[in-house]
Write the structure tokens for this entry.
Amino acid sequence: MTGLATIGIARRAGGALNVLSGHRAPSSAALWLLAALALASPAARAAEPGDFRQFRIVVGTTVGATFDSYARLVGRHIGRFLPGRPPVTVENMAGAGGLTAANYLYNLAPRDGSTIGMFARALPALPLLDRTGVQYDTMKLNWLGNPASETSVVWAWRTTPFLSFEDIQRREMIVPASGPGADSMLFPYVLNAILGTKFRVVPGYPGGPELFMAVERGEAEGIASTSWSNFTTVKKDWLTEGKARLLLQLGLRKEPAIPDTPLVLDKASNAEDRKLLELIFSRNELAYPVAAPPGVPADRVALLREALRKTFSDEAFLADARRENLPVDFVSGEETTRVLADIYATPPELIDRVRRAMKDGGR
């Protein structure tokens, strides 16, 4: 502010004469006004009570998996749409097919909205099917949205004898898996029970990168549940060079890029089997669900949902997603919640059939 303006304020406030300068010294009222004007500038704005000081995204996979790629993509952009524009960190908490991260988010994470998690897609429905290791209630979590739908594929390594889906109905195929809640374990068990495949599942691998390594090292003959986007981001050369043979698509609709690979729903022999397959593979419609812990205040949940919505419609975010070959087809938190409520309304007799398949490996 200029000296003349200061003098004007002082005079209007009735300040006393400054003996040294010949100007009136600002009164207490004038000094208060000057301070208020200074604080009103953007540079001097103090942190608001609702601002985030920091923000964290917990992801239940190892570094390099598609879930990790989505989480880090969100982490680079969401801070611009949160009050206070906080720094964002992504923390990998792999283990038990994502259960470690899910249990942490539900029971230990702060409930102020400063920590959210990206779930393995099998975990929201897992409490219906197998409560081993589960320490969360799906419908008490605050679902914020989902970046994309997904199709998974069953595939075999090029040196194996598996050339078509029918081959895995005729002979045993060894596939790796992580934990009980993971697609890599559930999907082959369901396929064994419903479609008569002969998968032998070997569990204990931490996450997606390790499943690929198991096949490459000859410990397994293929994988029964690889996300298509995972293939096209981290192992695209396996497709272009013919190292992997696609045998079946797992989802409610075909991936347009691979129209000649059959869809799992088309292999069902009756209406009940098809309904059961729809139940299991509907989770691919919510491929990378994002949630906040229970107990987060409703206004904070609304703020997080809006921040996520703005992130997924932001041009800089979308440009980054295209560069990383990560598809974006955003589903809101409200719609995510509705889809999960429908899953939890599944008739008990169908749930029991899936439970039996999980118990005996579908055999």
